């Protein structure tokens, strides 16, 4: 394996899907022109909208959503692997899905993954989120070939569930993607430490493109996109929440080196208990 130049797109998506896609396309084109072979955008690239009625008035099924066509064309035009970190789409049962979509250099849809863990939390100071009220959770972990290696897909709140990343790594993923739209309180407190933990636990590269700043719907996100190496070091990051591009070179072989030094993925043991306390 050899090093691959990657680019993470940091955005501030708003309530107009076409404008969001225009912004994403400009940044993806710039990244590809600068030599990136794997490019990833953040969670809900196409739409950040917390009002339920307005959200569902603009959602489209996957086969009708312009994001799918535009990202496929971008990938094919620039001969890159392109991860639409996630798109808000209308599912077949009438609920929304938060879907990560990986396109290959021929414009083919290599893989898609629906966010499994719904962000149903009460952070404090009146900030409350109930993602499951609008979105249907996924139920299957997904890996795919990209960036000259195997990539494991996840989205945002999934980051807090270490078992998912262990499953992905044990299935062969050397790179883990975490496109996100972290809230400012949780981002400030937990973003970097959780990303580094997932890298260390699995001996994997972690690529985390983020939404950042104050969005049109009033939501505030953390930004600070990051690339973490398999030993847990931050090798590239944006120290702000402004839209932009984060570049890095990743060598998938370093995942094998880290896993040889600390073979934690092979040291699992069956465990029973604990018994409930009386």
UniProtKB/TrEMBL annotation:
CDD domains: nit
SUPFAM superfamilies according to UniProt: Carbon-nitrogen hydrolase
Organism: Marinicauda pacifica
Keywords recorded for this protein, A-Z: Hydrolase
Gene Ontology terms, MF aspect: hydrolase activity, acting on carbon-nitrogen (but not peptide) bonds, in linear amides
Classification via PROSITE patterns: CN_HYDROLASE
Domain CN hydrolase, chain residue ranges per copy: 4-252
Short name of any one Pfam family annotated for the protein: CN_hydrolase
Coiled coil: none
InterPro entries documented for this protein: C-N_Hydrolase, C-N_Hydrolase_sf, Nit1/2_C-N_Hydrolase
UniProt-recorded name of the protein: Carbon-nitrogen hydrolase family protein
Entry annotated with the keyword Metal-binding: no
């Amino acid at each position: 394996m050899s090093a691959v130049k990657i680019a993470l797109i940091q955005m501030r998506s708003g309530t107009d899907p076409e404008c969001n896609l225009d912004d994403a396309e400009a940044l993806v084109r710039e990244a590809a022109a600068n030599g990136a072979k794997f490019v990833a955008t953040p969670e809900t690239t196409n739409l950040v909208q917390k009002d339920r009625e307005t959200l569902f008035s603009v959602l489209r099924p996957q086969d009708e959503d312009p994001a799918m066509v535009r990202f496929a064309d971008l990938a094919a035009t620039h001969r890159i692997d392109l991860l639409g970190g996630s798109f808000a789409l209308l599912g077949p049962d009438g609920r929304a899905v938060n879907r990560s979509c990986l396109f290959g250099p021929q414009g083919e849809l290599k893989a898609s993954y629906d966010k499994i863990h719904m962000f149903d939390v009460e952070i404090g100071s009146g900030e409350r989120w109930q993602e499951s009220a609008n979105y249907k959770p996924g139920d299957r972990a997904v890996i795919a070939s990209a960036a000259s290696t195997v990539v494991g897909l996840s989205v945002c709140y999934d980051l807090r569930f270490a078992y998912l990343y262990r499953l992905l790594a044990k299935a062969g993923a050397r790179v883990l993607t975490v496109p996100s739209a972290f809230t400012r309180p949780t981002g400030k407190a937990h973003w970097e430490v959780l990303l580094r933990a997932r890298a260390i636990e699995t001996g994997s590269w972690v690529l985390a493109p983020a939404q950042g700043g104050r969005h049109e719907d009033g939501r505030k996100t953390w930004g600070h996109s990051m690339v973490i190496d398999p030993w847990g070091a931050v090798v590239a990051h944006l120290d702000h929440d402004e839209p932009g591009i984060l570049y890095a070179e990743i060598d998938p072989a370093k995942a094998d080196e880290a896993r040889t030094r600390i073979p934690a993925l092979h040291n699992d043991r069956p465990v029973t208990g604990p018994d409930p306390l009386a």
